[in-house]
Amino acid sequence: MYLIYTKRTVFMKNSISLFSSYRFTHIILMLIVLALIPLTSQAEKREFDLSIEDTRIVLVGKRDFHTFAFNGQVPAPLIHVMEGDDVTVNVTNMTTLPHTIHWHGMLQRGTWQSDGVPHATQHAIEPGDTFTYKFKAEPAGTMWYHCHVNVNEHVTMRGMWGPLIVEPKNPLPIEKTVTKDYILMLSDWVSSWANKPGEGGIPGDVFDYYTINAKSFPETQPIRVKKGDVIRLRLIGAGDHVHAIHTHGHISQIAFKDGFPLDKPIKGDTVLIGPGERYDVILNMDNPGLWMIHDHVDTHTTNGDKPDGGIMTTIEYEEVGIDHPFYVWKDKKFVPDFYYEESLKKDLGMHNSKVFKGEPIEE
Ligand SMILES: [Cu+2]
């Protein structure tokens, strides 16, 4: 009995000293955590205004399209925010048809009524009305936004889509190596509906134009690099077709699917991307030359009934230059920001881009 008592006393004494040292450590840790809170979890509040406007854009040559363009541009403005930010977007519909915006990829935890689906989460925004979306930017990654009304027409051939890039709080090592960042939104168009807003997008439609950021080759733009660059291509399937994006002369490392990092990047030379999907592909620029990037669905490299066109571009290395007699773009006027590469370097926020601005259509 005495023995037991002694053991218990010793045990209790040890427990008390353990407890107080534990409590001391605990308090110190709490103080450290409290001191770090303003640095780590300061969610910015960001508020943006988007209008939806009847706008005429040109895909290539004389091939124009009546679109319902966000802030009068196709693709829509870049929305670039930090993971965890509180985002508010006021959307004003200046067209004659109802619309919504779905924030594709956002989890909308606790904000399901900002998911932008007519008949499920809200009444569609009627002409002349404004609707406010509020959500937390999560998860991080390459996301996008698009109308969710009559998607077969509004998304497929009225240009109602744009990039939503949510920067991760803790970027992966592979992301930190990137020197140049590009967004490529892929879509498909049916020219017979080009100037019939409110119609189109039905089974049996004949798709005959294919675009990157709403332009068909040769009116797309090159990707200009130098040896040693590491480029990130953020591919976004914004249309109705599957695309097989083939890059010549380089190893494509698929590092993210729908914004989520893969445990190990998948290496390849062709990336198959379907409607709604995103793939972030990282490539080391280690092979100076002029190299094609194109859709390997061969009919997607035509404009109407004529090759070459559609989803095609090139990687141009500074080291080899463009002054070669055979090179299709040797005299081309270079337009920076065609892949949002300039906008992505700006401070976080929403960035309109003159490159994508169309002509207003007066009713
Ligand atoms: Cu719409």
Automatic annotation (TrEMBL):
<dbReference type="Pfam" id="PF07732">
    <property type="entry name" value="Cu-oxidase_3"/>
</dbReference>
<feature type="domain" description="Plastocyanin-like">
    <location>
        <begin position="57"/>
        <end position="170"/>
    </location>
</feature>
<dbReference type="GO" id="GO:0016491">
    <property type="term" value="F:oxidoreductase activity"/>
</dbReference>
<dbReference type="GO" id="GO:0005507">
    <property type="term" value="F:copper ion binding"/>
</dbReference>
<dbReference type="InterPro" id="IPR008972">
    <property type="entry name" value="Cupredoxin"/>
</dbReference>
<keyword id="KW-0479">Metal-binding</keyword>
<keyword id="KW-0186">Copper</keyword>
<dbReference type="InterPro" id="IPR011706">
    <property type="entry name" value="Cu-oxidase_C"/>
</dbReference>
<feature type="binding site">
    <location>
        <position position="160"/>
    </location>
    <ligand>
        <name>Cu(2+)</name>
    </ligand>
</feature>
<dbReference type="InterPro" id="IPR045087">
    <property type="entry name" value="Cu-oxidase_fam"/>
</dbReference>
<dbReference type="Pfam" id="PF07731">
    <property type="entry name" value="Cu-oxidase_2"/>
</dbReference>
<keyword id="KW-0560">Oxidoreductase</keyword>
<dbReference type="InterPro" id="IPR011707">
    <property type="entry name" value="Cu-oxidase-like_N"/>
</dbReference>
<feature type="domain" description="Plastocyanin-like">
    <location>
        <begin position="213"/>
        <end position="304"/>
    </location>
</feature>
<feature type="binding site">
    <location>
        <position position="154"/>
    </location>
    <ligand>
        <name>Cu(2+)</name>
    </ligand>
</feature>
<protein>
    <submittedName>
        <fullName>Multicopper oxidase type 1</fullName>
    </submittedName>
</protein>
<feature type="binding site">
    <location>
        <position position="99"/>
    </location>
    <ligand>
        <name>Cu(2+)</name>
    </ligand>
</feature>
<feature type="binding site">
    <location>
        <position position="147"/>
    </location>
    <ligand>
        <name>Cu(2+)</name>
    </ligand>
</feature>
